[in-house]
């Protein structure tokens, strides 16, 4: 029995040495490499972006920023403070978890699909693009100022999404960008952990007539040219665990060896007790 454990220990030490040693050449950036053919290893084909204009929905938050040459009008239009620089400061650099500065500073589309703008009044903006909303608001602004005497900007209050399941940092996030890829969203959520099923990630997307579940394969580079490469507001990403997590085996080789060792040691102890 002692010889068996000695051999087992030597075997594990050899395995540990083989799998734990990484040379500096594999870690140091920007080395002066000899016999190098250049930094480019491989280039894939180009995948054209498949984008479509987002149509505003109920509960979306939009920034409608109106500035004119009339100070009195500016005071009225700024009754809802939507200064983007102020929002960015509150967001702490462009991303947030739970609180939402845009909720306090932007215009939230109510259940009727309407926003209420000071002086202009109520406007129905659901099922419109931000460009169409800008044209709609512009017509109302021109009732009070002459052409060329105003500035108008309409944009989404960032991209909101939820990351659930096998993420290293799951939660609800807002990224202050006009476009966010699914990989950027995963990175903001701390990346997927080692047991996440990357070939079957669920993307729950909202549409004007309801929600739909899409199963996405993150391992397929054709994703770059699909309509799921860019997130849309209020998307939810859910990563399921692999079967290995349910079985309870080790995730890495070292963890598996440790598990096997513990099991063998426990069985040997039980057998020793029984013999005695």
What percentage of amino acids are in beta strands?
15-25%
How is the main sheet built?
6 strands, mixed
- Number of beta-strand segments: 11
Q: What sort of overall outline do the alpha carbons produce when their principal axes are compared?
A: elongated
CA radius of gyration: 28 Å
Q: Could you tell me the mean pLDDT?
A: 80
Distance between the termini: 15 Å
Q: What's the order of the H and E elements?
A: HEHHEHEEEHEEEHEEEHH
Q: Provide the helix percentage.
A: 25-40%
The helix/strand class is alpha+beta
If you had to describe this structure to a student in words, what would you say it looks like?
With 276 residues, this protein is of the alpha+beta class. It contains 8 helices and 11 strands. The protein has helices at 2-20, 71-77, 84-91, 101-105, 130-141, 182-188, 243-247, 253-275; strands at 61-68, 95-96, 107-108, 114-117, 121-124, 150-156, 159-165, 171-175, 201-207, 210-216, 235-239. A 6-stranded mixed β-sheet has the order 2-8-7-11-9-10, covered by helices on one side. Mean pLDDT is 80; it is low at 82-94.
What's this model, at a glance?
This protein is of the alpha+beta class and 276 residues long. It is built from eight helices and eleven strands.
């Amino acid at each position: 029995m002692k010889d068996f454990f000695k051999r087992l220990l030597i075997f594990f030490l050899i395995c540990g040495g083989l799998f734990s040693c990484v040379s500096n050449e594999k870690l140091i950036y920007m080395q002066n490499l000899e016999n190098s053919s250049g930094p480019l290893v491989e280039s894939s084909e180009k995948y054209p972006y498949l984008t479509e204009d987002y149509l505003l929905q109920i509960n979306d938050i939009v920034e409608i920023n109106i500035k004119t040459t009339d100070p009195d009008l500016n005071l009225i239009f700024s009754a809802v403070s939507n200064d983007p620089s102020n929002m960015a400061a509150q967001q702490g650099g462009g991303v947030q978890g739970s609180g939402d500065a845009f909720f306090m500073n932007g215009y939230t589309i109510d259940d009727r699909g309407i926003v209420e703008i000071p002086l202009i009044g109520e406007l129905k903006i659901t099922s419109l693009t931000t460009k169409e909303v800008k044209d709609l608001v512009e017509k109302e602004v021109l009732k009070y100022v002459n052409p060329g005497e105003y500035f108008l900007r309409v944009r989404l209050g960032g991209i909101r999404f939820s990351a659930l399941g096998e993420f290293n940092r799951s939660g609800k996030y807002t990224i202050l960008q006009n476009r966010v890829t699914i990989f950027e969203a995963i990175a903001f959520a701390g990346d997927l952990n080692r047991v996440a099923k990357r070939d079957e990630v669920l993307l729950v997307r909202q549409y004007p007539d309801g929600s739909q579940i899409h199963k996405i394969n993150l391992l397929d580079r054709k994703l770059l040219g699909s309509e799921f490469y860019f997130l849309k507001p209020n998307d939810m990403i859910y990563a399921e665990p692999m079967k290995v997590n349910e079985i309870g085996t080790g995730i890495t080789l070292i963890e598996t060896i440790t598990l096997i060792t513990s099991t063998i040691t426990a069985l040997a102890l039980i057998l020793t007790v029984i013999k005695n």
